[in-house]
Amino acid sequence: MREIVRDAAGEHRKSPRLSLGDTSYKFEVFEDTGTGTAFFGLVLFDLAVFCATNLPAIAHDSVLFKNISNDSVAHLVSLYAKSEKQSFIALDEIKKYGESAAATLVEQSVIQLSDEAVLYVKDWRPSRPPVPTQESE
Could you tell me whether strands 25-28 and 17-20 are parallel, antiparallel, or unpaired per DSSP bridges? Predict the structure, then answer.
């Protein structure tokens, strides 16, 4: 875990700690109780398990990245890219993570969804009235 934290955040960042009991567990990051740190620690833990086991793939949805700083997400992108295993991640607004991360994401992406390119034949989003344009006013 320490190696992954160092690669993702540098030497200065403390590693999360997992303590297992007979009937309980604790996963904590010392001296930082922020939401972003908690989500970052969770992703790092997942990546540590992913790298240390025969787990063939990992999937992370965009909700995990919303509270993590853009720089930290950019470092995570490079960790996903270094793995020889399959990583499935969903990210919005990739340009905010920097040119290098955006280029890696575009280069290695298999599918890109948008309002026009939905994953399923049926669009499950609620119907919304069209947004008025200046021409229609």
Answer: antiparallel
- Domain with 11 in it: 2-108
On whether residue 120 sits in a domain, the answer given is no
Number of domains in the chain: 1
| Per-residue pLDDT tens over the stretch 100-117 | 999 999 999 888 888 788
Q: What backbone torsions phi and psi does residue 75 show, to the nearest 5 degrees? A: -65, -40
Alpha-carbon Rg for the chain, nearest whole angstrom, is 18
What's the CATH number where 24 sits? 3.40.50.300
Q: Are 97 and 73 in contact (CB under 8 A)?
A: yes
Q: What is the pTM of this model?
A: 0.75
